[in-house]
Amino acid sequence: MGTKIIQKQFKRIETKYIIEKDMLPQLLEDLGDYIEADAYATSTITNIYFDTENFDLIQDSIAKRNAREKVRMRLYDSEPKANSKAFLEVKKKIDSVGYKNRLTSNANAITSYVTTGMSLIDGFQDSLIDDQVQSDLTTIRKRHGHIHPKMYIYYDRMSFRGKNGADIRITIDQNLLYRDWDISLSAGKFGNDLLDPSKIIMEVKVPGECPEWLLQCLEKYGIVQESFSKYGTAYRLANNLTKEEVSLARNTI
User: Fold this and answer.
1) Is the dihedral of CA 93, 95, 96, 100 positive or negative?
2) Distances (CA, A) of 159 to 10, 39, 203, 239
3) Residue 6: strand, helix, or coil
4) Cα 26 versus chain centre, distance
5) H helix runs in 37-103, sequence order
6) Which residues share a beta bridge with 215?
């Protein structure tokens, strides 16, 4: 029996904030009138990013070229395995708006599909593969050639949604780890710190502008928006690059 493929599309504005971990309890208390725990309030997230041997995709993303495309596999299992449910995501950012096309299968099938182009399912039929994801991957392969697992990024997440139908999501990521070696699910959860362990990442995801109540809360705590790409930061740290060197590379690519 073939693997069922479920495709979802996302279009939203995403803003990130780096805050001190010890500030979180009071911040969440102040936001309590407006947000509530999501259906999956806590999760462990494992990401495998696919790229070329020379990291051409993330270099293009840093240079803001080709819609800043990223190809990743995401899993929510606490101990993911080859047959764990997984999401294949192709992310883009155009004019500060993030777009994501996603389909669902298992980790082994997705890895095979991305690295070889072969079907996610037995008895492959073109109609069963999402057209947009397939088109994006075909374009990326034509531009860069072969892509394969190049970066592991793990973190613990808390997820919230707006109350009373407010179309907003807030996620809190902490305990972030990365590695560019042993890019295997079976290798386990380990790596180098992606962020100072005393800090966390808060991400706000809305279809339009941030609501006034959230802006007021951020102002109260002096929290300002920051540009932070998990994969971009992992690439910089793995290659011992300073932010200035990455910026220089971005301006000369």
Assistant:
1) negative
2) 17, 8, 10, 31
3) coil
4) 27
5) 56-62
6) none
How confident is residue 227, by pLDDT bands cut at 50, 70 and 90?
confident
Q: Which of 233, 226, 181 is nearest to 203 (CA)?
A: 226
Name which of 167, 10, 169 is nearest 74 in CA terms: 10
Which amino acid is residue 50, in one-letter code?
A: F
**115 HSE (CA, 13 A, CB side):** 14
Task: Return the DSSP state at 19.
Answer: E
Please tell me the pTM assigned to this model. 0.88
Six-digit token string for 23 = 């500030």
Q: Give me the helix-helix angle, 243-252 and 230-238, nearest 10°.
A: 110
Q: Three-class SS of residue 113?
A: helix
The pLDDT tens digits for 85-131 are 999 999 988 887 788 888 888 999 999 999 987 765 543 334 344 67
